[in-house]
């Protein structure tokens, strides 16, 4: 399913999503270089834009992973990212990042909701997410979107802040009210 829609553009009321490019590193460094924002990420904060470019390049090239830049429609300002990867036939994993200066406005919920709509419309039966148990904002967002916390994987990730557990979240197509 991923290959057929790799160039997908989509939108919500306040956001336009377009495929991510390596040149997005110029504005994404604001997020990837933010130590507090990157606390719950699987890699350490980036030291410079070159590191962000090096991080993005292989991800953009992966055939089973798609990333989008979230753009505020009223200003044309890039505000974050969305991503989806095919874990196996019928199952997609999602990820997202929102620049700190745009927190608290409902953008993450709006963008992730629209991504979920699109993935279920493409035929996925299940969408999952993997979060750090201490990432309160992300865990709250997934709960509000109707995801179920299906389990805790102990000592799942070795990150820049140490060995971390993971919450595994799942949402089935029939549970999505949209």
TrEMBL record:
EC class (word): transferase
InterPro entries the UniProt entry points to: Acyl_CoA_acyltransferase (IPR016181), GNAT_dom (IPR000182), N-acetyltransferase (IPR051531)
Record EC number: 2.3.-.-
Origin: domain of life: Bacteria
GO MF entry, a single one: acyltransferase activity
Location of the N-acetyltransferase domain: 20-174
Keywords, comma-separated and alphabetical: Acyltransferase, Transferase
Name listed for the protein in its UniProt record: GNAT family N-acetyltransferase
